Amino acid sequence: MSELLGLCFDADTSPSIRFQGGTADGLAGVGPAPALYGWGVGWYPSSERGASVIKDPTSSGESTVGDALGDWNRFRSTLFVCHLRGHQRPRKQQDAQPFVRSYGGRQWIFAHDGDLASGWNDRLPLPDDPAFDPLGRTDSEHAFCWLLSRLHARRVRSLAEVAPTELHGWLRELNGIGQMNTLITDGDHVAVYHDQQARGQLHWTRRIPPHPGTELLSSAVRITLDSPEDSNRTALVFSSQPLTADEWRPVGMGELLLARRGSIVWSSAPAETGSGPMRSAQPELVPSSRVETGQQAAAAQPLATGGSAFPGAGTRSRTLRIVHETHYQYEQPVERSSHRLLLRPVEDRSQEILDHSLEIQPFSSRVEYEDVFGNQALGVEIGDPYDRLRVTSSATVRVSAVPSLEQRAAAGRHAIPLGWMPWQRQMLSAYLMPPELAESQLQALSEFAMGFVERNDYDLVGTLLDLNETIYRDFEYVSGSTTIETTAFQVFESRRGVCQDFANLMICLARLLQVPARYRMGYIFTGADYENRIQSDASHAWVELYVPRVGWHGFDPTNGVQVGADHIRVACGRSYRDATPTSGTIYRGGGTETLTISVRVEETEPPPT
Questions:
Q1: Reduced to 3 states, what is the DSSP secondary structure of residue 394?
Q2: Running DSSP on this structure, what letter comes out for residue 21?
Q3: Which residues in the chain show pLDDT less than 50?
Q4: What would the pLDDT profile of 321-358 be if each residue is shown by its tens digit?
Q5: How many CB atoms lie within 10 A of CB 575?
Q6: Looking at residue 328, which CATH number applies to its domain?
Q7: Gap between the Cα atoms of 223 and 598, Å rounded
Q8: Strand 476-477 relative to strand 351-361, pairing
Q9: Would you state the pLDDT for residue 35?
Q10: What is the DSSP string of 61-75?
């Protein structure tokens, strides 16, 4: 008859929690029954390892926690665990849930819905160690102490140190002697387990900003997330009852989920994953607000198949033909203008130019040079009047895939924060300075970035991969929703944009973590099987990050992948303005300008087998 509720945020949040009054019929959908008693909530103030728990085992009416504590700066956490109205009669404080105990240099919180069969204390023997003696007399607290004793026997001190499959086995063992729906957390991860015989319910959802509403509501609890400073939080919610009309997924029978900082990091649902370290859950496991736009023709748009099915995955090299046409038309003749063109693809050990031509109409004087970012630039001067300007760049390029970041960085673990030598910092300073935004906006973006760091235990590679995949998963591609003036913070707030916006956001977040980041412009081969073989109608943008002892490595947050043999690199810089394909100045004339761009990317020969 009890209910569980777990809240897992990507950064510290202060929700208002009101426990509703009512009777058992409101919870179970049955006839009149006596009122249910008790509520309790546990959290980790400011995400420290010490837990706070407030519980009232005698209450059967409405009680407000958040309204009373919302102004207290210690009522902020990434994790909240609640146990709601679980008893037919008032209980003693020591027997009320959730339980909190100290183990391994941190405090753990445990909440349980269900009853174990008689004889549970004999079937779950505890070691002869007063550290594991229960304070009360309930089967739930005994099961909690038994789990901690198993961790102690394995000489592990946190959920991150135990193989998820082993933890899953312990919970199944408990489930073998009674109903087991439970939440257990060590302050970093929260483990969520649903009874393998589906006794009781357990559901979950993931709420991505901007939120359609600020309230989560059931007959037992009302949660309000209306604090202005928390409006951009991602919330992972576990509940015995679905709250509001969000997209809720039931936790499977006997399924274990592990969550941290607003994301599922492991699930037992697809298959047992062995005894290795925690892995990311498969993307399809996560209910998300991201809306795919169907088959995409534009290279600047995300691939409809998703990151895991990217066409270049496993392809070592491709030979691609790119035709990029830019056409300007003016209301009045232009008497004189100058332009800078960045249209020649990069040539290095992973990208070979087989041919390249550039046609400009009308006639112009040209000068080739290398700009400060190493781009092959072309300066153009047009001194005769014209009302149309056409630039056509054609190239055939052989692109070879580079090893993944995991492979390139396998020689050693890199941790955040990175330490740069003074001369390194001086050389990389252009790529370490975040954009000029209001301090409050940069602070919000910094907290968002640190959520990825915390979720990956300060590991650099894991943080960067998580960041790249999360932007793909949680941010919606909406063509025309932004302009070149849209800031990283505006994209963060709206959770929508195009490839340029996702690149700018990832660059900003990386620089706030002191990871050098630069903007890369180029093209992408989508692999779509269209009759006319036209793959795109725009250039593409992605990110390159500088990793110690690796160098610059490409990430495509629009598609959630690392850059491979489908990406043709052209120009790079601090931002879009440094790497834009065409730019210029009209000194006289012109008037209203009409711009038309067409890009085609085709494969000229099948990939090697």
A1: strand
A2: P
A3: 23-34, 271-313, 528-536, 609
A4: 999 999 999 999 999 999 999 999 999 999 999 999 99
A5: 16
A6: 2.60.40.2250
A7: 50
A8: unpaired
A9: 60
A10: S-EESHHHHTTSTTS
- The four Cα atoms 528, 534, 538, 544 give a dihedral, to 10 degrees, of 50
What pLDDT is attached to residue 529?
Answer: 36
DSSP state of 127: P
Q: Report the amino acid identity of residue 108.
A: W
pLDDT value, residue 56: 84
Axis-axis angle for helices 460-474, 439-455 (nearest 10) = 110
Query: Cβ distance 49 to 15 under 8 Å?
Result: no
Per-residue pLDDT at 44: 95
- Residue 290, pLDDT score: 32
Q: How far apart are CA 500 and CA 482, in angstroms?
A: 9
Do 327 and 414 lie in a common domain? no
Q: Are residues 106 and 226 in the same domain?
A: yes
Q: How far is it, in rounded angstroms, from Cα 222 to Cα 63?
A: 10
Q: Does residue 90 have a cis bond before it (omega within 30 degrees)?
A: no
Q: Longest C-alpha distance within the chain, in Å?
A: 97
Q: What is the CATH number of the domain that holds 542?
A: 3.10.620.30
How far the first Cα of the chain sits from its last, in Å, is 59
Could you give the dihedral angle defined by the CA atoms of residues 465, 466, 469 and 472, in that order, rounded to the nearest 10 degrees?
-130
- DSSP helix/strand/coil, 168: helix
Query: Which residues lie closer than 8 Å to 75 by C-beta, 6 or more apart?
Result: 14, 43, 45, 66, 69
Secondary-structure percent of the chain, ordered helix, strand, coil, rounded to 5: 20, 35, 45
Looking from the CA of 229 toward its CB, the CA atoms found within 13 Å total 14
The dihedral built from the CA positions of residue 17, 22, 28 and 29, taken in this order, carries a sign that is negative
**Interacting residues of 496 by C-beta distance below 8 A, sequence separation 6+:** 475, 476, 477, 478, 481, 482
Cα separation, 344 vs 486, in Å, equals 27
| Side chain identity, residue 110 | F
Amino acid at 216: L
Are the beta carbons of 573 and 541 closer than 8 angstroms? no
pLDDT at 27: 39
Residue 291 domain flag: no
User: What's the pLDDT at 607?
Assistant: 55
In whole angstroms, give the CA distance from residue 281 to residue 178. Answer: 28
Residue 297 lies in a domain: no
Q: Within a domain: residue 599?
A: no
The reported pLDDT for the residue numbered 63 is 66
Range of the domain at 374: 319-399
Q: Is residue 57 part of a domain?
A: yes
Sequence-distant (≥ 6) Cβ neighbours of residue 130 within 8 angstroms: none
CA distance 483 to 460: 31
Measured distance CA(235)–CA(340) in Å, rounded = 46
For residues 272 and 353, state if they share a domain: no
User: Cα–Cα distances in Å, from 292 out to 176, 190, 283, 304, 479?
Assistant: 42, 30, 14, 7, 12
d(CA 493, CA 121): 51
Angle at 536 between CA 531 and CA 539, to 5 degrees: 165
CB count within 10 Å of CB 369 equals: 10
Q: What residues does 594 pair with on adjacent strands?
A: 329
Query: What is residue 566's three-state secondary structure?
Result: coil
